[in-house]
Amino acid sequence: MNLEIVRAKDLKLKPKDETKLGFGRIFTDHMFSMQYKTGKGWYDAKIRPYENFSLSPACMVLHYSQTIFEGLKAYDTDAGINLFRPWDNFKRLNVSGKRMCIPEIDEKFALECLIELLGIEKDWVPKTEGTSLYIRPTIIATDPFLGVKEGDEYLFFIILTPVGAYYASGLEPVNIYVEDEYVRSVIGGTGFTKTGGNYAASLAAGKYAHDKGFSQVLWLDGVEKKYVEEVGSMNIFFKIRGELLTPPLMGSILPGITRDSVIKLSRDMFGVNVREERISIADIFEENASGGLEEVFGTGTAAVVSPVGGMTWEDKSIKVSGGKMGDLTAKLYDTLTGIQYGKIKDPFGWIKTL
Ligand SMILES: *Cc1c(COP(=O)(O)O)cnc(C)c1O
Q1: Same domain, yes or no, for 75 and 128?
Q2: Ligand 1 mean position to 89 CA, how many Å?
Q3: What are the tens digits of pLDDT across the range 105-144?
Q4: Separation of CA 219 and ligand 1 centre (Å)
Q5: 187 and 334 assigned to the same domain
Q6: Pocket of ligand 1 (CB under 6 A)
Q7: Which domain holds residue 59?
Q8: Is the dihedral of CA 190, 195, 201, 207 positive or negative?
């Protein structure tokens, strides 16, 4: 397919103070878009000025949430701009798409278009330590139709936003609230997809936890509310008696690319045994009581690795690693970010330098 490029006439001023970027409020000069129609396939691939869309109020995605998205980052390094496993994001977009009846995209072409877009927007990649350019590929159903069915028309777009260092004031361990009323997903549902509805459904629990002073929700399985699933929009790891444990990919949790990278780093670089097994929240609290629970952390593109300093479940609260960041958590954070920012050699073939 051909990629048409339409340049913006006026360029925006780039943010002066990169320590105040925050997350997801500033967008670059250009975006990518491509359309789909049943019978025609994907067409009209374009890099064009960033602008509002014109959509019918009957547009299907606005009513029934047929949408999928991805999230990845571009990092400024001495050798150029680094992407971290970007092919895995487009692969996962298609996995989400299959579940949501959204037509498959050509992953290789999508990555080529992203690389082209980044070439045009390279001055938007912030340079201050810990900052990056966050990339948001999204697909929505656009048919103006109120019947409940899968769409015949879709819009795929990629927008870019410079984001600040996630840990502006250092890697502070967070307190998490074990959610025992609401559930995020069940096996057979959409928990393994990045689809808008999953996040809309999680807001009430997140708000409740925030109002109580917690920074994240730890989700339990949707059937028994017994087994740990994931935390906020991160996967979760427990270090127990020298081993790492994380819930297996059974369909209810998001298969994080950071999760997979942490598993490979732990096994291949640090010689740590990693078990992908169901873990009950009761066992975690018991391991803590008997001194076996050493570290807890979440993993995801935004935070990379986020140490957990405390957990509250029903009427019980525990402190983890004395409320401090654990050694393995710190090592994983330093190594992963080191690879992403080109400071540490990448032995896994994860980095694409532009
Ligand atoms: C995106 C996401 C993750 C983390 O995935 P990464 O590929 O590591 O960024 C974990 N859980 C949920 C619910 C997510 O949306």
Answers
A1: yes
A2: 10
A3: 999 999 999 999 999 999 999 999 999 999 999 999 999 9
A4: 14
A5: yes
A6: 71, 194, 230, 233-235, 254, 256-259, 299-301
A7: 3-163
A8: positive
